[in-house]
Amino acid sequence: MISVVILGAGNLATHLFKAFHKASEISVKQWFNRSLKPLEPYKNLTETTDDITSLKAADIYILAVSDDAIAGVSSKLPTGNQLVLHTSGSVSIHDLDKSYKRGVFYPLQTFSKNASMDFANVPICIETIDKKDLPVLKELAAAIGSKTYKVNSDQRRALHLAAVYVNNFTNQLFRVAHEITESQSVEFDILKPLILETAKKVQELSPYSVQTGPAKRNDKKTINKHLKLLDNEHHKAIYELLTSSIKKTHGR
Amino acid sequence: MISVVILGAGNLATHLFKAFHKASEISVKQWFNRSLKPLEPYKNLTETTDDITSLKAADIYILAVSDDAIAGVSSKLPTGNQLVLHTSGSVSIHDLDKSYKRGVFYPLQTFSKNASMDFANVPICIETIDKKDLPVLKELAAAIGSKTYKVNSDQRRALHLAAVYVNNFTNQLFRVAHEITESQSVEFDILKPLILETAKKVQELSPYSVQTGPAKRNDKKTINKHLKLLDNEHHKAIYELLTSSIKKTHGR
């Protein structure tokens, strides 16, 4: 049985609490947040507190707080033998206070406030100062059904950056597509199966090998047709940059 | 029973043949291609020909040929009462020869050479010169399990353009992410669940409403960290443009 104290009450903290609470091998001893309000709905499931000086002893303290708060919160933790983990993609493991055993437990996924998340679909990037602490991180992840990947801080930062491309930037391309379809009063719904298929294709094959389209073929006629259709300068800039990017990748 | 002649032997033609062949309400009378070679594997399933002057009578001739070939092929068809359809997203319905009943049957999806495609996941955009011809197009699509959307030529062109953003450009972002992870010798696999979840999210909610990340929050600290990490000028240009695009969309 792994005993855990969760710190923070955001999206990730809440998803972690739910997953930990369900796992038979994990006991959530306590849940801390500066304000008790967001913890209200869970107060019958675990002990909640807003007093950081009264944290219970546990195997693991997991900090699911904002990046900027990690160093500050970790310096205020009561002394003890616990392993202190942060959950951020871009913060160094060395931001954690030196008095503790330290590690990182970074779930690489996008969490929605209301939708539940199956942690089988959440890869967890783990890192520890002392490699003796790795097994318990693996157990913690396994208990909620997640796969773990041992990555160092540079690799984690690269993943965090790459995640912006495949999540935020990709989603912005969907937004631009939405604007384009709306401008012609046509349903964005028509594009949804293509969006899903595009994501499914790269589950098995590399993005390089599945690329198609006018830029890959260097089909100037279609590219020029498209550029003529684009009256939004902003959409056009994205079209031009990504077309040149594809050409570069495929040696056109 | 709808009788069909297929023209062309590319990816789409082959997927359409397989779907039509399986559908009990459709009979593929003949399959034409300039060269018989790609039709070899199917010659026991339907009549194949490379002689456009000897096409059989059928309810529908479906042109799954390259955009540039549509006008030429349609002008060489034998006279008859068939409905002639092209399958392109960017070619006008008026490129088809005027002597025939004309329509467009544009499947908005990405097809792989080897993977099979369930046409339930392929929305078909339909258009006809004469609205009396619409019902048979709907029947044809329904017979292979596809949903139809009636769109005019301008709308179809907008969809074709938007499809480049959600398919080719999105896939290129996956490629950039692949390059970033490779540069730190970390597995691209770790990003795959996030890629899938990003596509799933917009199946139910708008891309606008699900956006997250440093650009949306105008989190300059993280943005600057990311820009510093990017040593590839090309990756950096994409980061900057899409960050400014997200800021614009979300009024930052």
How is this fold's topology laid out?
The structure is a homodimer of 252-residue chains.
Chain A (H helix, E strand, L loop, with lengths): L1 E6 L3 H12 L3 E7 L14 E3 L10 E4 L6 H6 L7 E4 L14 E7 L16 E5 L5 H10 L4 E3 L2 H31 L8 H13 L2 H4 L3 H4 L2 H10 L3 H17 L3
Parallel strand pairs in A: 1-2, 1-4, 2-3, 4-5, 5-6, 7-8
Antiparallel strand pairs in A: 6-7
List keywords for this structure.
homodimer; 252 residues; alpha/beta; Rossmann fold; N-(1-d-carboxylethyl)-l-norvaline Dehydrogenase, domain 2; 2 domains; 8-stranded mixed sheet; 9 helices; 8 strands
Largest sheet geometry of chain A: 8 strands, mixed
pLDDT averaged residue by residue of chain A:
96
How would you name the CATH homologous superfamily of the largest domain in chain A? NAD(P)-binding Rossmann-like Domain
Assembly level:
homodimer
Determine the strand fraction of chain A and express it as a percent band.
Answer: 15-25%
Report what the structure shows.
2 copies of one chain form a homodimer. With 252 residues, chain A is of the alpha/beta class. Chain A has helices at 11-22, 70-75, 134-143, 153-183, 192-204, 207-210, 214-217, 220-229, 233-249; strands at 2-7, 26-32, 47-49, 60-63, 83-86, 101-107, 124-128, 148-150. Chain A has an 8-stranded mixed beta sheet. The relative contact order of chain A is 0.09. The first copy, chain A, has 9 helices and 8 strands. Chains A and B meet through α4, α5, α6, α7 and α8 of A and α4, α5, α6, α7 and α8 of B.
Brief rundown of the structure:
Two copies of one chain form a homodimer. Chain A has 252 residues and is α/β, with parallel strands linked by helices.
